[in-house]
Every structure is written in C-alpha cells, then in structure tokens.
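> forwarded from #structure-qc
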C-alpha cells in the first residue's frame, strides 16, 4: 500500500514473500487476472479493496508498507490484521488512529520502543526477513577492492558526507572513492548536492534483481551506508544485510550505531565513522580485515530463519 518502487519497503516485501512463499497484492482500482513484476523474482497482482476483503480473512492479511496515497483504505480493513511499521516517519495521524485495532510488527527495537514511549502502543519486534539468494560459483575468486554505496540518495542517508570524503580521497594515490548508486530524492540533490562533485561519483540506479546486487557487491570491499533517522537506528537495513551476505565490510554512521542498542559493534563486525574525515581515513587504508566479515556473517542467521512471520 505504497507508491515507491525502490527501497526497504520493496525489499522487505520481496524477501518475506520468497522466504515464506506468501503472495503479494497491491490495491488497485480494479482486480486484474494477470500478474506483474514486483522485483527480486517476485510477482504481484492488482486487486480491488473489495476483492481483498472478500478473499482473505484478517489473519491472512499483512500490510507490509503504507504511505499517504493509501490511507483512505485503512478504515475498510477489519480488526486484527497485521501491519508492519519500518521507521518513525510512517507514524502519521491516519496510521496512528488505526494501529490500536491492528497487530503491529516493528523491525527494529528502537522503533518498537518509540511506538510504546510516544503513543503507548505495543508491537511485536521481528528481525528483517532475508532470502539467501544464490551466488555464482566463481564468486569467491572475485577481487574485492571497490567502495560502494547502494542506499537511496536522500536526506536520511547523508550522501553529502560520502561526497565530501570522496573529494578528500580523489588525489590520494591508491585510494578508491565510493561509487554511489541508488534512486535520487531530487529535493535532497537540489538542496545538498547541487554545488558539490556528486555527479562525478554518482553511477545511477540499479535494477531490482539479485543479479544486479551480485554484480555491484561481488567486488565490493566496503559498503558505505551513513543512514541516520531520528528515533531510529541500531538494527538492520537491507543494504546492511545484502552487504554482509556478499562479504563486504560495513561502514556505518556513528549516529545509527551509538544511539540505540543493536548487533553492530565498531571494529568487531563493522566500522563506524562520524564524519567525512573518518570515512576518508578508513577508505584510504588498504588493510584487509577478514575478522569483520566473519563476525558480521553471524548476524544473518536469524534473518534467514525469519521466525514469527
């Protein structure tokens, strides 16, 4: 129940569908008999809200994401359906109004805590589901020397810090700047990146396929994600899990790791930076640290099991 075609909402829905063999539906103006490509080897079907409510009981309905374009349907759903809340930005008044009627899943402990502290609403914390897609047979022999960012280019991703670090690395012999991929928030680009060298480092979007992820991350040494979200953090995002699965070293924002408890520990299973100077120092080092990769892999197990869904 949301318009975006990229990002965590899409990844969550696809991974859950693949792991649990759940069908995916979108609310449309009319019911269609054909299916359409959703992304990551998942198909979906458009159904009218009336047909959804006729075909499925409350226990079989899970809203995996919602934005303002679909608020009008919330009052049509019966009590005790399940809804997933990914981060605090989703907690707008029309959603809050209906949450007491629904079973709520939160995917980070910080979001669960915020929902309880701010609105006195209980939820069930479950980790992100992660589908272990097949890697090519020659994957382990690929040289891993690229620095990559694969998150959206947006305010909460702090892409401007990556650009600043890249400028500091650009003239250092032997240093690799961060290749920036991902969908653009045009407003963010206009306000924060227009007068920078962003275009020099930006490589465009990539497809919603595991093949695209493999091509990007198979030769990745560091995957840089500087996400920071108010009243959120500590836990996982799909960019983190994908990087771990593809044996990239995670470089994360200090604001994400320090403000909330979670599985990520500096110099144990990731590297934490607070600004562009620290990021540049990390990336100019050619030191190989397999310990971080090995320790990070331990994080994946509960996500692949995805118990509770």
């Amino acid at each position: 129940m949301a318009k975006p075609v990229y990002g965590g909402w899409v990844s969550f829905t696809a991974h859950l569908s693949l792991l649990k063999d759940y069908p995916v539906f979108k609310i449309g103006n009319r019911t269609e008999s054909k299916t359409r490509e959703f992304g990551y080897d998942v198909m979906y079907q458009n159904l009218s809200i009336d047909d959804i409510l006729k075909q499925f009981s409350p226990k079989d309905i899970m809203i995996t994401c919602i934005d303002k374009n679909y608020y009008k349907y919330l009052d049509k759903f019966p009590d005790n359906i399940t809804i997933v809340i990914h981060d605090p930005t989703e907690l707008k008044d029309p959603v809050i109004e209906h949450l007491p009627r629904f079973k709520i899943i939160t995917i980070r402990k910080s979001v669960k805590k915020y929902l309880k502290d701010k609105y006195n609403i209980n939820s069930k914390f479950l980790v992100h589901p992660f589908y272990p897609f097949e890697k090519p047979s020659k994957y382990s022999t690929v040289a891993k020397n690229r620095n990559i960012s694969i998150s959206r280019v947006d305010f909460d991703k702090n892409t401007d810090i990556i650009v600043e670090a890249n400028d500091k690395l650009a003239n250092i012999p032997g240093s690799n700047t961060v290749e920036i991929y991902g969908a653009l928030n045009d407003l963010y680009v206009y306000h924060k990146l227009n007068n920078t060298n962003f275009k020099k480092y930006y490589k465009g979007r990539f497809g919603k396929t595991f093949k695209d992820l493999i091509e990007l991350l198979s030769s990745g040494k560091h995957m840089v994600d500087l996400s920071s979200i108010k009243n959120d953090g500590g836990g996982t995002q799909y960019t983190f899990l994908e990087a771990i699965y593809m044996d990239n070293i995670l470089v994360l924002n200090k604001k994400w790791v320090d403000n909330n408890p979670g599985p990520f520990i500096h110099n144990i299973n990731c590297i934490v930076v607070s600004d562009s100077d620290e990021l540049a120092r990390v990336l100019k080092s050619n030191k190989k640290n397999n310990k971080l990769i090995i320790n990070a892999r331990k994080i994946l197990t509960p996500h692949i099991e995805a118990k509770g869904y």
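QC bot note: The radius of gyration is 20 Å. Residues 213 and 242 are 8 Å apart (CA to CA).
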